[in-house]
Specification:
With 212 residues, the chain is of the alpha/beta class. Helices cover 28% and strands 29% of the residues. It has six helices and twelve strands. Strands 2-1-3-4-12-11-10 form a seven-stranded mixed β-sheet. Bound molecules: glutamine. The site of glutamine (GLN) has 12 residues, from helix 5.
Length: 212
């Protein structure tokens, strides 16, 4: 049984939830999803999806709840889409605090403002899928260990480093469960290789938090 957490703060939480459940069905895998607001919610999860939204706001929530330290320490696989990609990065062009789990620098709003949102066919893993881009970031610099999964107009839009996958676009807004299946496969592989470190939930994650 695989349990995938979906960070429940902003963005397409419900859509990610549905797409993950559909991906489990397509793959004929036993799995469930958990909406994650607190450390207690994330504790049983084998992986986490961080959806789009406003990365600075989501970042503050992660810090406030202690989820930032916890998910880094647990080393659970993470799929970050759009704002989620920004949060996985080490640096952004806006100098905000991020999780810093991937050795990448990202440029926020790299394709322009909301009114320049667009859809485009993209190639990922030798497969053509539809990408929905809404104030999307792109990856500007990558470390040696980072694999580029896809590019569009000479901009890097999908990357993988170990158990972390970051993509600029919104797979949850299409009918194609390909990206969610890719993430489930990653969790399966990772589970075979690594026993997840599930730290006990403790006050140390909640330091600086006046309203847990
Ligand atoms: N531009 C937003 C950010 O950087 C992300 C937009 C999105 O997630 N659709 O936070």
């Amino acid at each position: 049984m695989i349990n995938i957490g979906i960070l429940n703060l902003q963005g397409d939480v419900e859509e990610h939830d549905i797409m993950t459940s559909n991906a489990f069905k397509n793959m004929k895998i036993k799995g469930k999803t958990t909406l994650v607001n607190t450390l207690k919610d994330v504790y049983p999860c084998d992986g986490l999806i961080i959806s789009g939204g406003e990365s600075s706001t989501i970042g503050m929530h992660l810090e406030k709840t202690g989820l930032d330290k916890y998910i880094a320490e647990s080393s659970m696989p993470i799929l970050g889409t759009c704002a989620g990609l920004v949060l996985l990065s080490r640096n952004t062009n806006k100098n905000q605090s991020t999780l810093g789990l991937m050795d990448i620098s990202v440029k926020r709003n790299a394709f322009g403002r909301q009114k320049f949102s667009f859809e485009s066919e993209i190639e990922l893993d030798k497969k053509i899928i539809n990408g929905v881009f809404i104030r999307a970031p792109c990856v500007e610099k990558i470390g040696n260990n980072v694999k580029i999964l896809s590019e569009l107009d000479q901009k890097i839009i999908a990357v993988k480093e170990n158990q972390y996958i970051g993509i600029s676009f919104h797979p949850e807004l299409t009918d194609d469960t390909y990206i969610h299946e890719l993430f489930i496969k990653e969790i399966q592989d990772y589970k075979k290789k690594v026993r997840l470190n599930k730290p006990k939930i403790s006050q140390k994650y909640l330091l600086n938090n006046k309203n847990p």
